Amino acid sequence: MTRKTILFIFIAIATGITFSFQNSEEQNDYSLLYQQKIQALEASENGLLTCIDKSDLQVASNINNIKQNIQLTRNKLKGVDFWLRYLEPLAQKKINGPLPVEWETEVFEKFEKPYKREGAGLTLALQYLEDEEQPDKKVLAGLIQQSITAIQTYYADSITKNIKAYHHFFLCNRLYLLNLATIYTSGFECPDTASIIPELYVMLNEVNTIYTAYNQSYANTPIGEEYLALYQQTIQFVKQQATSYSLFNHYAFIRNYVNPLFALNQQMLLQYKVVSRSFVDYTLNKQATSIFSKNLYQGQNAKGIFLRVNDEKVLEAMDNVGKLLFYDPILSANNLRSCVSCHNPKQFFTDTATATSLQFDQTSFLTRNTPTLINAAYNHLIMLDGKHISLQHQTKGVLTNSAEMASNEKEMVAKVLSCNKYKEAFEKLLLYTPLEKEITADHIASVITYYYSKFSQYTAPFDAAMNKYTEANIDVQKGFNLFMSKAQCGTCHFAPQFNGVKPPYVSSEFEVLGVPSSLQYDSLSADKGRYLVNPAEETLHAFRTGTIRNAQYTAPYMHNGVFKNLEQVIDFYNAGGGAGKGLQVPNQTLPPDSLQLNPVEKKYLIAFIQSLNEQIQFEVAPQKLPKSTITALNNRRVGGTY
Hints:
With about 650 residues, this protein is an all-alpha fold. About 45% of the residues lie in helices and about 0% in strands.
Protein backbone atom coordinates (compact mmCIF):
# COMPACT_ATOMS: atom_id res chain seq x y z
CA MET A 1 0.00 0.00 0.00
CA THR A 2 1.45 3.38 -1.02
CA ARG A 3 1.78 6.40 1.22
CA LYS A 4 -0.88 8.11 -0.87
CA THR A 5 -3.30 5.22 -0.43
CA ILE A 6 -2.84 5.31 3.34
CA LEU A 7 -3.29 9.06 3.28
CA PHE A 8 -6.45 8.85 1.24
CA ILE A 9 -7.94 6.25 3.55
CA PHE A 10 -7.32 8.65 6.43
CA ILE A 11 -8.96 11.51 4.51
CA ALA A 12 -11.84 9.29 3.45
CA ILE A 13 -12.54 8.22 7.03
CA ALA A 14 -12.33 11.82 8.20
CA THR A 15 -14.74 13.02 5.51
CA GLY A 16 -17.10 10.09 5.61
CA ILE A 17 -16.33 8.58 2.20
CA THR A 18 -17.63 5.04 2.13
CA PHE A 19 -15.52 2.05 1.22
CA SER A 20 -18.29 -0.55 1.11
CA PHE A 21 -19.14 -1.80 -2.36
CA GLN A 22 -21.46 -4.67 -3.18
CA ASN A 23 -18.98 -7.21 -4.55
CA SER A 24 -20.00 -10.49 -6.05
CA GLU A 25 -17.52 -13.35 -5.97
CA GLU A 26 -18.92 -14.68 -9.25
CA GLN A 27 -17.16 -13.82 -12.48
CA ASN A 28 -19.05 -11.95 -15.18
CA ASP A 29 -18.31 -10.91 -18.75
CA TYR A 30 -16.88 -7.61 -17.61
CA SER A 31 -14.50 -8.91 -14.94
CA LEU A 32 -13.39 -11.75 -17.23
CA LEU A 33 -12.60 -9.25 -19.99
CA TYR A 34 -10.50 -7.27 -17.52
CA GLN A 35 -8.46 -10.35 -16.67
CA GLN A 36 -8.08 -11.32 -20.33
CA LYS A 37 -6.83 -7.89 -21.34
CA ILE A 38 -4.38 -7.73 -18.44
CA GLN A 39 -3.07 -11.18 -19.31
CA ALA A 40 -2.78 -10.23 -22.99
CA LEU A 41 -0.67 -7.20 -22.09
CA GLU A 42 1.55 -9.25 -19.80
CA ALA A 43 2.04 -11.94 -22.46
CA SER A 44 2.93 -9.33 -25.05
CA GLU A 45 5.44 -7.72 -22.68
CA ASN A 46 7.04 -11.08 -21.94
CA GLY A 47 7.31 -11.71 -25.67
CA LEU A 48 8.92 -8.31 -26.08
CA LEU A 49 11.41 -9.10 -23.32
CA THR A 50 12.32 -12.38 -25.03
CA CYS A 51 12.79 -10.54 -28.31
CA ILE A 52 15.18 -8.10 -26.63
CA ASP A 53 17.13 -10.89 -24.93
CA LYS A 54 17.65 -12.73 -28.22
CA SER A 55 18.51 -9.67 -30.32
CA ASP A 56 21.86 -8.16 -31.19
CA LEU A 57 21.26 -4.46 -30.68
CA GLN A 58 24.18 -3.57 -32.93
CA VAL A 59 22.10 -4.66 -35.92
CA ALA A 60 19.67 -2.03 -37.21
CA SER A 61 17.11 -4.56 -38.42
CA ASN A 62 16.92 -6.05 -34.92
CA ILE A 63 16.24 -2.65 -33.41
CA ASN A 64 13.49 -2.06 -35.96
CA ASN A 65 12.02 -5.43 -35.06
CA ILE A 66 12.01 -4.50 -31.37
CA LYS A 67 10.31 -1.20 -32.19
CA GLN A 68 7.61 -3.07 -34.06
CA ASN A 69 7.15 -5.37 -31.06
CA ILE A 70 6.93 -2.36 -28.76
CA GLN A 71 4.19 -0.95 -30.97
CA LEU A 72 2.27 -4.22 -30.88
CA THR A 73 2.56 -4.21 -27.09
CA ARG A 74 1.43 -0.59 -26.96
CA ASN A 75 -1.70 -1.66 -28.83
CA LYS A 76 -2.33 -4.27 -26.13
CA LEU A 77 -1.79 -1.55 -23.56
CA LYS A 78 -4.46 0.57 -25.23
CA GLY A 79 -6.89 -2.26 -24.55
CA VAL A 80 -6.38 -2.06 -20.82
CA ASP A 81 -5.27 1.53 -20.16
CA PHE A 82 -8.92 2.35 -19.44
CA TRP A 83 -8.45 0.55 -16.10
CA LEU A 84 -4.73 0.99 -15.42
CA ARG A 85 -4.73 4.77 -14.99
CA TYR A 86 -7.63 4.79 -12.61
CA LEU A 87 -7.14 1.66 -10.54
CA GLU A 88 -3.45 2.20 -9.71
CA PRO A 89 -1.91 5.25 -11.42
CA LEU A 90 1.51 4.84 -9.80
CA ALA A 91 1.91 1.33 -11.22
CA GLN A 92 0.76 2.65 -14.59
CA LYS A 93 3.76 4.99 -14.59
CA LYS A 94 5.99 1.91 -14.51
CA ILE A 95 4.13 0.38 -17.43
CA ASN A 96 4.11 3.46 -19.63
CA GLY A 97 5.75 6.36 -17.81
CA PRO A 98 6.52 9.36 -20.05
CA LEU A 99 9.52 10.53 -17.98
CA PRO A 100 12.45 8.59 -16.48
CA VAL A 101 12.19 10.57 -13.23
CA GLU A 102 9.36 12.62 -11.82
CA TRP A 103 8.93 14.25 -8.44
CA GLU A 104 5.55 14.01 -6.82
CA THR A 105 3.98 17.45 -7.04
CA GLU A 106 0.42 16.36 -6.51
CA VAL A 107 -2.40 17.70 -4.40
CA PHE A 108 -1.17 15.43 -1.63
CA GLU A 109 1.91 17.60 -1.27
CA LYS A 110 -0.44 19.61 0.89
CA PHE A 111 -0.06 16.72 3.33
CA GLU A 112 3.36 15.20 2.63
CA LYS A 113 6.71 16.14 1.12
CA PRO A 114 7.40 15.42 -2.58
CA TYR A 115 9.22 12.22 -3.35
CA LYS A 116 11.08 10.80 -6.32
CA ARG A 117 9.17 8.58 -8.73
CA GLU A 118 11.01 6.64 -11.40
CA GLY A 119 9.22 5.77 -14.64
CA ALA A 120 9.66 2.73 -16.85
CA GLY A 121 7.91 0.82 -19.58
CA LEU A 122 7.02 1.16 -23.22
CA THR A 123 7.32 4.90 -23.88
CA LEU A 124 10.73 5.13 -22.25
CA ALA A 125 11.91 1.97 -24.00
CA LEU A 126 10.97 3.37 -27.39
CA GLN A 127 12.47 6.75 -26.53
CA TYR A 128 15.68 5.02 -25.43
CA LEU A 129 16.00 3.27 -28.78
CA GLU A 130 15.41 6.56 -30.58
CA ASP A 131 17.99 8.49 -28.55
CA GLU A 132 20.83 5.98 -28.17
CA GLU A 133 23.13 5.14 -31.08
CA GLN A 134 24.39 2.06 -29.23
CA PRO A 135 21.61 0.95 -26.88
CA ASP A 136 22.47 -1.26 -23.94
CA LYS A 137 20.43 -4.48 -23.84
CA LYS A 138 20.36 -4.52 -20.03
CA VAL A 139 18.98 -0.99 -19.84
CA LEU A 140 16.31 -1.70 -22.44
CA ALA A 141 15.33 -5.03 -20.89
CA GLY A 142 15.24 -3.39 -17.46
CA LEU A 143 12.62 -0.89 -18.61
CA ILE A 144 10.40 -3.70 -19.86
CA GLN A 145 10.99 -5.94 -16.83
CA GLN A 146 9.88 -3.12 -14.52
CA SER A 147 6.75 -2.83 -16.61
CA ILE A 148 6.02 -6.55 -16.32
CA THR A 149 6.54 -6.38 -12.56
CA ALA A 150 4.14 -3.44 -12.31
CA ILE A 151 1.44 -5.39 -14.13
CA GLN A 152 1.31 -7.82 -11.18
CA THR A 153 -0.26 -5.02 -9.13
CA TYR A 154 -3.42 -5.34 -11.17
CA TYR A 155 -3.93 -8.96 -10.14
CA ALA A 156 -4.25 -7.96 -6.48
CA ASP A 157 -7.45 -8.82 -4.65
CA SER A 158 -7.98 -5.18 -3.76
CA ILE A 159 -8.42 -4.51 -7.47
CA THR A 160 -9.91 -7.71 -8.89
CA LYS A 161 -12.68 -7.79 -6.30
CA ASN A 162 -13.61 -4.17 -6.80
CA ILE A 163 -13.65 -4.59 -10.56
CA LYS A 164 -16.92 -6.41 -9.97
CA ALA A 165 -18.61 -3.30 -8.59
CA TYR A 166 -20.24 -1.00 -11.12
CA HIS A 167 -19.14 2.20 -9.33
CA HIS A 168 -15.58 2.20 -10.52
CA PHE A 169 -16.59 1.71 -14.17
CA PHE A 170 -18.08 5.18 -14.58
CA LEU A 171 -15.15 6.72 -12.73
CA CYS A 172 -12.69 4.89 -14.99
CA ASN A 173 -14.72 6.09 -17.95
CA ARG A 174 -14.66 9.69 -16.74
CA LEU A 175 -10.89 9.66 -16.54
CA TYR A 176 -10.71 7.97 -19.95
CA LEU A 177 -12.81 10.74 -21.53
CA LEU A 178 -10.76 13.47 -19.87
CA ASN A 179 -7.60 11.86 -21.24
CA LEU A 180 -9.16 11.68 -24.71
CA ALA A 181 -9.48 15.45 -24.54
CA THR A 182 -5.97 16.07 -23.26
CA ILE A 183 -3.24 13.44 -23.65
CA TYR A 184 -4.23 10.62 -26.01
CA THR A 185 -4.03 12.83 -29.12
CA SER A 186 -1.24 15.21 -28.08
CA GLY A 187 1.77 12.89 -28.00
CA PHE A 188 2.19 13.36 -24.26
CA GLU A 189 3.36 9.78 -23.86
CA CYS A 190 3.88 8.59 -27.42
CA PRO A 191 7.32 9.52 -28.79
CA ASP A 192 6.41 8.26 -32.28
CA THR A 193 3.99 10.91 -33.53
CA ALA A 194 3.03 8.71 -36.48
CA SER A 195 1.48 6.24 -34.01
CA ILE A 196 -0.67 8.70 -32.03
CA ILE A 197 -3.85 8.58 -34.11
CA PRO A 198 -3.58 4.87 -35.03
CA GLU A 199 -3.23 4.11 -31.31
CA LEU A 200 -6.24 6.30 -30.62
CA TYR A 201 -8.32 4.29 -33.09
CA VAL A 202 -7.18 1.03 -31.51
CA MET A 203 -8.05 2.33 -28.07
CA LEU A 204 -11.52 3.52 -29.06
CA ASN A 205 -12.34 0.09 -30.42
CA GLU A 206 -10.85 -1.73 -27.42
CA VAL A 207 -12.89 0.39 -25.02
CA ASN A 208 -15.97 -0.39 -27.09
CA THR A 209 -15.49 -4.06 -26.17
CA ILE A 210 -15.32 -2.99 -22.53
CA TYR A 211 -18.62 -1.14 -22.91
CA THR A 212 -20.26 -4.22 -24.44
CA ALA A 213 -19.04 -6.51 -21.67
CA TYR A 214 -20.10 -4.01 -19.02
CA ASN A 215 -23.67 -3.75 -20.31
CA GLN A 216 -23.93 -7.53 -20.52
CA SER A 217 -22.91 -7.76 -16.87
CA TYR A 218 -24.72 -4.80 -15.29
CA ALA A 219 -28.25 -4.60 -16.64
CA ASN A 220 -29.43 -2.47 -13.70
CA THR A 221 -26.87 0.29 -14.26
CA PRO A 222 -26.27 0.23 -18.02
CA ILE A 223 -24.45 2.64 -20.26
CA GLY A 224 -27.24 4.59 -21.95
CA GLU A 225 -28.15 4.09 -25.61
CA GLU A 226 -27.52 7.77 -26.35
CA TYR A 227 -23.97 7.43 -25.07
CA LEU A 228 -23.29 4.23 -27.02
CA ALA A 229 -24.65 5.71 -30.26
CA LEU A 230 -22.47 8.79 -29.91
CA TYR A 231 -19.46 6.62 -29.11
CA GLN A 232 -19.98 4.70 -32.36
CA GLN A 233 -20.02 8.02 -34.19
CA THR A 234 -16.77 8.91 -32.44
CA ILE A 235 -15.10 5.75 -33.73
CA GLN A 236 -16.32 6.48 -37.26
CA PHE A 237 -15.06 10.06 -37.05
CA VAL A 238 -11.56 8.93 -36.09
CA LYS A 239 -11.61 6.22 -38.74
CA GLN A 240 -12.28 8.84 -41.41
CA GLN A 241 -9.56 11.22 -40.16
CA ALA A 242 -6.02 11.38 -41.47
CA THR A 243 -3.61 9.27 -39.42
CA SER A 244 -1.21 12.21 -39.01
CA TYR A 245 -1.83 13.93 -35.69
CA SER A 246 -0.96 17.25 -37.34
CA LEU A 247 -3.88 16.78 -39.75
CA PHE A 248 -6.27 15.34 -37.17
CA ASN A 249 -9.21 17.60 -36.31
CA HIS A 250 -8.71 17.86 -32.56
CA TYR A 251 -11.24 20.68 -32.33
CA ALA A 252 -14.12 18.68 -33.84
CA PHE A 253 -13.09 15.51 -31.98
CA ILE A 254 -13.36 17.14 -28.56
CA ARG A 255 -16.23 19.53 -29.29
CA ASN A 256 -18.56 17.17 -31.11
CA TYR A 257 -17.74 13.87 -29.46
CA VAL A 258 -15.58 13.77 -26.33
CA ASN A 259 -17.18 16.65 -24.46
CA PRO A 260 -20.77 15.46 -25.11
CA LEU A 261 -19.74 11.94 -24.07
CA PHE A 262 -18.31 13.39 -20.87
CA ALA A 263 -21.60 15.17 -20.13
CA LEU A 264 -23.54 11.92 -20.58
CA ASN A 265 -21.15 10.01 -18.32
CA GLN A 266 -21.53 12.70 -15.66
CA GLN A 267 -25.31 12.24 -15.85
CA MET A 268 -24.85 8.51 -15.24
CA LEU A 269 -22.54 9.18 -12.28
CA LEU A 270 -25.39 11.06 -10.63
CA GLN A 271 -28.18 8.79 -11.86
CA TYR A 272 -26.53 5.66 -10.45
CA LYS A 273 -25.28 7.39 -7.29
CA VAL A 274 -21.70 6.40 -8.06
CA VAL A 275 -19.41 6.49 -5.02
CA SER A 276 -15.67 7.05 -5.26
CA ARG A 277 -13.07 5.23 -3.19
CA SER A 278 -9.98 6.59 -4.95
CA PHE A 279 -7.74 9.61 -4.49
CA VAL A 280 -7.86 9.91 -8.29
CA ASP A 281 -11.25 11.58 -7.82
CA TYR A 282 -10.04 13.90 -5.08
CA THR A 283 -10.68 17.19 -6.89
CA LEU A 284 -13.19 16.29 -9.63
CA ASN A 285 -16.77 17.49 -9.43
CA LYS A 286 -19.63 15.13 -10.35
CA GLN A 287 -21.88 18.15 -10.95
CA ALA A 288 -19.79 19.50 -13.85
CA THR A 289 -21.59 19.07 -17.16
CA SER A 290 -18.65 19.91 -19.43
CA ILE A 291 -14.89 19.46 -19.56
CA PHE A 292 -14.84 23.19 -20.28
CA SER A 293 -16.67 24.09 -17.09
CA LYS A 294 -15.11 26.25 -14.42
CA ASN A 295 -16.34 23.81 -11.78
CA LEU A 296 -14.78 20.70 -13.38
CA TYR A 297 -12.19 20.48 -10.62
CA GLN A 298 -11.11 22.41 -7.56
CA GLY A 299 -7.47 23.23 -7.03
CA GLN A 300 -7.73 25.66 -4.13
CA ASN A 301 -10.14 26.69 -1.43
CA ALA A 302 -10.67 30.41 -2.01
CA LYS A 303 -12.53 30.82 1.30
CA GLY A 304 -9.61 29.75 3.44
CA ILE A 305 -10.49 29.81 7.10
CA PHE A 306 -14.12 30.48 6.14
CA LEU A 307 -14.35 27.17 4.29
CA ARG A 308 -17.73 26.20 5.71
CA VAL A 309 -19.45 29.52 5.05
CA ASN A 310 -22.19 29.27 2.42
CA ASP A 311 -24.59 32.00 3.52
CA GLU A 312 -24.81 34.52 0.66
CA LYS A 313 -24.97 37.55 2.97
CA VAL A 314 -21.87 36.43 4.86
CA LEU A 315 -20.03 35.75 1.61
CA GLU A 316 -20.98 39.20 0.39
CA ALA A 317 -19.55 40.70 3.58
CA MET A 318 -16.33 38.73 3.03
CA ASP A 319 -16.14 40.00 -0.54
CA ASN A 320 -16.66 43.61 0.52
CA VAL A 321 -13.99 43.63 3.21
CA GLY A 322 -11.64 41.61 1.00
CA LYS A 323 -11.91 44.19 -1.77
CA LEU A 324 -11.16 47.07 0.60
CA LEU A 325 -8.10 45.28 2.00
CA PHE A 326 -6.87 44.40 -1.51
CA TYR A 327 -6.63 48.14 -2.22
CA ASP A 328 -5.49 49.17 1.26
CA PRO A 329 -1.77 49.91 1.85
CA ILE A 330 -2.40 49.43 5.57
CA LEU A 331 -1.26 45.85 4.98
CA SER A 332 2.29 46.98 4.22
CA ALA A 333 4.89 47.99 6.77
CA ASN A 334 5.15 51.57 5.46
CA ASN A 335 1.42 51.96 4.63
CA LEU A 336 2.33 52.90 1.06
CA ARG A 337 2.03 49.59 -0.77
CA SER A 338 -1.04 47.43 -1.44
CA CYS A 339 -1.90 44.19 -3.23
CA VAL A 340 -2.83 46.35 -6.23
CA SER A 341 0.76 47.58 -6.42
CA CYS A 342 1.71 44.31 -8.14
CA HIS A 343 -1.67 42.81 -9.03
CA ASN A 344 -3.52 45.56 -10.87
CA PRO A 345 -7.11 44.59 -11.73
CA LYS A 346 -6.93 46.81 -14.81
CA GLN A 347 -4.04 44.61 -15.99
CA PHE A 348 -5.78 41.29 -15.27
CA PHE A 349 -4.40 41.26 -11.73
CA THR A 350 -0.79 41.31 -12.86
CA ASP A 351 1.87 43.98 -13.48
CA THR A 352 2.48 44.65 -17.15
CA ALA A 353 4.46 47.84 -16.65
CA THR A 354 7.84 46.19 -16.13
CA ALA A 355 9.42 42.75 -16.44
CA THR A 356 9.31 42.44 -12.65
CA SER A 357 7.66 44.64 -10.05
CA LEU A 358 9.30 47.20 -7.79
CA GLN A 359 10.45 45.96 -4.41
CA PHE A 360 9.44 47.37 -1.04
CA ASP A 361 12.61 49.50 -0.93
CA GLN A 362 11.29 51.46 -3.97
CA THR A 363 14.66 50.99 -5.69
CA SER A 364 15.24 47.34 -6.53
CA PHE A 365 13.05 45.05 -8.62
CA LEU A 366 11.76 41.61 -7.72
CA THR A 367 13.49 38.66 -9.37
CA ARG A 368 10.27 37.20 -10.79
CA ASN A 369 7.46 38.43 -12.97
CA THR A 370 4.12 38.99 -11.26
CA PRO A 371 1.71 36.21 -12.28
CA THR A 372 -1.98 36.91 -12.71
CA LEU A 373 -4.28 36.01 -9.83
CA ILE A 374 -7.04 35.10 -12.26
CA ASN A 375 -7.42 31.30 -12.37
CA ALA A 376 -4.76 30.91 -9.67
CA ALA A 377 -7.32 28.80 -7.80
CA TYR A 378 -6.91 26.07 -10.45
CA ASN A 379 -3.39 25.25 -9.30
CA HIS A 380 -2.63 22.87 -6.47
CA LEU A 381 0.71 24.50 -5.70
CA ILE A 382 1.02 28.27 -5.69
CA MET A 383 3.88 30.48 -6.91
CA LEU A 384 6.02 29.70 -9.91
CA ASP A 385 8.17 27.37 -7.82
CA GLY A 386 5.23 25.75 -6.01
CA LYS A 387 6.39 27.13 -2.69
CA HIS A 388 2.93 27.52 -1.18
CA ILE A 389 0.21 24.91 -0.81
CA SER A 390 -2.69 27.36 -0.53
CA LEU A 391 -3.75 30.79 -1.70
CA GLN A 392 -3.85 31.93 1.90
CA HIS A 393 -0.27 30.77 2.57
CA GLN A 394 0.81 32.68 -0.53
CA THR A 395 -1.01 35.83 0.59
CA LYS A 396 0.55 35.77 4.05
CA GLY A 397 3.92 35.02 2.46
CA VAL A 398 3.71 38.17 0.35
CA LEU A 399 2.47 40.29 3.24
CA THR A 400 5.44 39.32 5.40
CA ASN A 401 8.10 39.17 2.68
CA SER A 402 10.68 41.91 3.27
CA ALA A 403 10.97 42.54 -0.47
CA GLU A 404 7.22 42.88 -1.01
CA MET A 405 5.00 44.16 1.84
CA ALA A 406 7.44 43.70 4.74
CA SER A 407 4.68 43.41 7.34
CA ASN A 408 4.66 41.72 10.70
CA GLU A 409 1.49 39.66 11.17
CA LYS A 410 0.75 40.90 14.68
CA GLU A 411 1.32 44.56 13.85
CA MET A 412 -0.61 44.25 10.59
CA VAL A 413 -3.66 42.79 12.36
CA ALA A 414 -3.50 45.56 14.96
CA LYS A 415 -3.44 48.24 12.26
CA VAL A 416 -6.35 46.68 10.41
CA LEU A 417 -8.41 46.45 13.61
CA SER A 418 -7.66 50.09 14.39
CA CYS A 419 -10.20 50.82 11.65
CA ASN A 420 -13.71 50.45 13.10
CA LYS A 421 -15.16 49.35 9.77
CA TYR A 422 -12.69 46.47 9.53
CA LYS A 423 -13.04 45.62 13.21
CA GLU A 424 -16.83 45.41 13.08
CA ALA A 425 -16.73 43.31 9.91
CA PHE A 426 -14.22 40.81 11.28
CA GLU A 427 -15.94 40.54 14.66
CA LYS A 428 -19.06 39.39 12.81
CA LEU A 429 -17.05 37.03 10.60
CA LEU A 430 -15.28 35.60 13.65
CA LEU A 431 -18.54 33.88 14.55
CA TYR A 432 -18.06 31.65 11.50
CA THR A 433 -14.66 30.38 12.65
CA PRO A 434 -15.57 28.99 16.08
CA LEU A 435 -12.20 27.37 16.66
CA GLU A 436 -10.55 30.79 16.49
CA LYS A 437 -10.86 32.98 19.57
CA GLU A 438 -9.44 36.13 18.00
CA ILE A 439 -8.98 37.76 14.60
CA THR A 440 -5.75 36.70 12.92
CA ALA A 441 -3.81 37.12 9.71
CA ASP A 442 -5.63 34.02 8.44
CA HIS A 443 -8.92 35.91 8.53
CA ILE A 444 -7.39 38.77 6.59
CA ALA A 445 -5.76 36.52 4.01
CA SER A 446 -8.96 34.53 3.53
CA VAL A 447 -11.19 37.48 2.69
CA ILE A 448 -8.56 38.74 0.24
CA THR A 449 -8.35 35.40 -1.58
CA TYR A 450 -12.13 35.13 -1.61
CA TYR A 451 -12.39 38.57 -3.20
CA TYR A 452 -10.00 38.08 -6.09
CA SER A 453 -10.94 34.45 -6.77
CA LYS A 454 -14.39 35.44 -7.99
CA PHE A 455 -12.74 36.82 -11.12
CA SER A 456 -11.73 33.26 -12.02
CA GLN A 457 -15.31 32.20 -12.71
CA TYR A 458 -15.60 33.85 -16.12
CA THR A 459 -15.38 31.98 -19.40
CA ALA A 460 -13.85 32.64 -22.80
CA PRO A 461 -15.16 32.43 -26.40
CA PHE A 462 -13.32 29.13 -26.82
CA ASP A 463 -15.27 27.66 -23.90
CA ALA A 464 -18.52 28.75 -25.55
CA ALA A 465 -17.43 27.09 -28.79
CA MET A 466 -16.48 23.82 -27.09
CA ASN A 467 -19.83 23.83 -25.29
CA LYS A 468 -21.60 24.34 -28.64
CA TYR A 469 -23.05 27.74 -27.81
CA THR A 470 -21.07 29.22 -30.68
CA GLU A 471 -18.67 28.07 -33.39
CA ALA A 472 -15.01 29.12 -33.28
CA ASN A 473 -13.75 30.80 -36.44
CA ILE A 474 -11.50 28.80 -38.73
CA ASP A 475 -8.28 30.50 -37.56
CA VAL A 476 -9.03 29.55 -33.95
CA GLN A 477 -9.80 25.98 -34.96
CA LYS A 478 -6.56 25.70 -36.92
CA GLY A 479 -4.68 27.25 -34.01
CA PHE A 480 -6.12 24.74 -31.54
CA ASN A 481 -5.32 21.83 -33.86
CA LEU A 482 -1.71 23.07 -34.07
CA PHE A 483 -1.65 23.56 -30.30
CA MET A 484 -2.57 19.91 -29.81
CA SER A 485 -0.22 18.52 -32.45
CA LYS A 486 2.68 20.07 -34.36
CA ALA A 487 3.29 22.91 -31.90
CA GLN A 488 3.27 20.39 -29.00
CA CYS A 489 1.74 22.93 -26.61
CA GLY A 490 -0.87 20.41 -25.47
CA THR A 491 1.78 18.16 -23.92
CA CYS A 492 2.26 20.73 -21.13
CA HIS A 493 -0.85 22.94 -21.19
CA PHE A 494 -3.91 20.80 -20.54
CA ALA A 495 -7.59 21.57 -21.06
CA PRO A 496 -9.66 23.08 -19.64
CA GLN A 497 -7.43 25.59 -17.84
CA PHE A 498 -4.58 25.12 -20.31
CA ASN A 499 -2.15 25.11 -17.41
CA GLY A 500 0.06 22.32 -16.09
CA VAL A 501 -2.73 20.49 -14.24
CA LYS A 502 -3.68 17.38 -16.21
CA PRO A 503 -6.32 14.68 -15.61
CA PRO A 504 -7.27 13.62 -13.02
CA TYR A 505 -6.35 17.15 -11.98
CA VAL A 506 -4.42 16.31 -8.84
CA SER A 507 -0.97 17.31 -10.06
CA SER A 508 0.90 20.44 -11.13
CA GLU A 509 3.49 20.01 -13.86
CA PHE A 510 6.86 21.76 -13.59
CA GLU A 511 8.95 22.17 -16.73
CA VAL A 512 12.53 23.14 -17.51
CA LEU A 513 12.40 25.33 -20.62
CA GLY A 514 15.83 26.92 -20.65
CA VAL A 515 14.55 30.47 -20.26
CA PRO A 516 17.31 32.99 -21.06
CA SER A 517 18.34 35.94 -18.93
CA SER A 518 17.89 38.25 -21.92
CA LEU A 519 16.76 38.26 -25.53
CA GLN A 520 20.40 37.95 -26.54
CA TYR A 521 20.43 34.36 -25.27
CA ASP A 522 23.90 34.86 -23.86
CA SER A 523 23.09 33.04 -20.62
CA LEU A 524 20.49 30.96 -18.86
CA SER A 525 18.32 32.68 -16.25
CA ALA A 526 20.04 32.22 -12.90
CA ASP A 527 16.75 31.57 -11.06
CA LYS A 528 16.82 27.98 -9.79
CA GLY A 529 13.03 27.79 -9.62
CA ARG A 530 11.57 24.63 -8.12
CA TYR A 531 15.04 23.58 -6.96
CA LEU A 532 14.80 26.18 -4.17
CA VAL A 533 11.78 24.32 -2.77
CA ASN A 534 12.71 20.73 -3.60
CA PRO A 535 16.43 20.40 -4.47
CA ALA A 536 16.99 17.73 -7.12
CA GLU A 537 18.75 17.43 -10.44
CA GLU A 538 15.41 17.34 -12.26
CA THR A 539 14.00 20.45 -10.53
CA LEU A 540 16.85 22.85 -11.31
CA HIS A 541 15.40 25.81 -13.29
CA ALA A 542 11.97 24.14 -13.31
CA PHE A 543 8.86 26.30 -13.04
CA ARG A 544 5.18 25.52 -12.69
CA THR A 545 3.34 25.56 -16.01
CA GLY A 546 0.92 28.48 -15.89
CA THR A 547 -2.34 29.01 -17.72
CA ILE A 548 -2.46 30.63 -21.15
CA ARG A 549 -5.94 31.96 -20.49
CA ASN A 550 -5.94 35.76 -20.82
CA ALA A 551 -2.33 35.57 -22.04
CA GLN A 552 -2.91 38.43 -24.46
CA TYR A 553 -3.26 40.74 -21.46
CA THR A 554 -0.64 39.34 -19.08
CA ALA A 555 2.66 40.23 -20.74
CA PRO A 556 5.58 40.14 -20.12
CA TYR A 557 6.07 36.38 -20.08
CA MET A 558 8.13 33.70 -18.31
CA HIS A 559 9.26 33.79 -14.71
CA ASN A 560 11.62 36.71 -15.39
CA GLY A 561 9.43 38.59 -17.85
CA VAL A 562 12.07 38.25 -20.56
CA PHE A 563 9.58 38.04 -23.45
CA LYS A 564 7.49 41.11 -24.22
CA ASN A 565 4.90 39.63 -26.57
CA LEU A 566 3.37 36.33 -27.66
CA GLU A 567 5.38 36.30 -30.88
CA GLN A 568 8.62 36.13 -28.89
CA VAL A 569 7.22 33.31 -26.73
CA ILE A 570 6.21 31.25 -29.75
CA ASP A 571 9.58 31.85 -31.41
CA PHE A 572 11.26 30.58 -28.24
CA TYR A 573 9.26 27.35 -28.24
CA ASN A 574 9.60 26.99 -32.00
CA ALA A 575 13.39 27.07 -31.64
CA GLY A 576 13.40 24.31 -29.01
CA GLY A 577 13.71 26.47 -25.91
CA GLY A 578 17.04 27.43 -24.39
CA ALA A 579 18.79 24.28 -25.59
CA GLY A 580 17.54 24.89 -29.11
CA LYS A 581 18.99 28.39 -28.89
CA GLY A 582 22.40 27.03 -27.92
CA LEU A 583 22.25 27.33 -24.12
CA GLN A 584 23.48 24.47 -21.95
CA VAL A 585 20.37 23.04 -20.29
CA PRO A 586 21.10 19.35 -19.62
CA ASN A 587 17.81 18.72 -17.79
CA GLN A 588 15.55 20.62 -20.19
CA THR A 589 12.16 18.90 -20.44
CA LEU A 590 11.19 20.78 -23.60
CA PRO A 591 12.47 18.96 -26.70
CA PRO A 592 15.38 20.96 -28.17
CA ASP A 593 14.36 20.35 -31.77
CA SER A 594 12.73 23.06 -33.86
CA LEU A 595 8.97 22.74 -34.33
CA GLN A 596 9.29 24.09 -37.87
CA LEU A 597 6.30 26.39 -37.49
CA ASN A 598 5.81 28.81 -40.37
CA PRO A 599 4.58 32.43 -39.98
CA VAL A 600 0.97 31.54 -40.85
CA GLU A 601 0.90 28.73 -38.28
CA LYS A 602 2.22 31.10 -35.62
CA LYS A 603 -0.66 33.47 -36.38
CA TYR A 604 -3.15 30.63 -36.02
CA LEU A 605 -1.67 29.78 -32.61
CA ILE A 606 -2.07 33.37 -31.46
CA ALA A 607 -5.67 33.38 -32.71
CA PHE A 608 -6.39 30.35 -30.53
CA ILE A 609 -4.61 31.84 -27.51
CA GLN A 610 -6.65 35.03 -27.89
CA SER A 611 -9.86 32.97 -27.99
CA LEU A 612 -9.04 32.08 -24.37
CA ASN A 613 -9.38 35.70 -23.27
CA GLU A 614 -12.07 35.57 -20.62
CA GLN A 615 -14.94 38.03 -20.64
CA ILE A 616 -14.32 39.33 -17.14
CA GLN A 617 -16.39 42.07 -15.54
CA PHE A 618 -13.88 44.05 -13.53
CA GLU A 619 -14.91 46.39 -10.74
CA VAL A 620 -14.03 49.99 -10.03
CA ALA A 621 -11.68 50.69 -7.14
CA PRO A 622 -13.12 51.78 -3.77
CA GLN A 623 -13.54 55.54 -3.53
CA LYS A 624 -12.09 55.68 -0.03
CA LEU A 625 -10.56 53.54 2.69
CA PRO A 626 -11.79 52.99 6.27
CA LYS A 627 -10.58 55.52 8.82
CA SER A 628 -8.26 54.44 11.61
CA THR A 629 -8.14 55.51 15.25
CA ILE A 630 -4.42 56.02 14.57
CA THR A 631 -4.32 59.44 12.94
CA ALA A 632 -1.08 58.78 11.05
CA LEU A 633 -2.79 55.99 9.10
CA ASN A 634 -5.50 58.21 7.68
CA ASN A 635 -3.34 59.56 4.88
CA ARG A 636 -3.46 56.23 3.07
CA ARG A 637 -4.23 56.32 -0.64
CA VAL A 638 -6.47 53.79 -2.34
CA GLY A 639 -4.13 51.30 -4.00
CA GLY A 640 -1.02 52.75 -2.34
CA THR A 641 1.53 55.07 -3.87
CA TYR A 642 3.91 52.61 -5.56
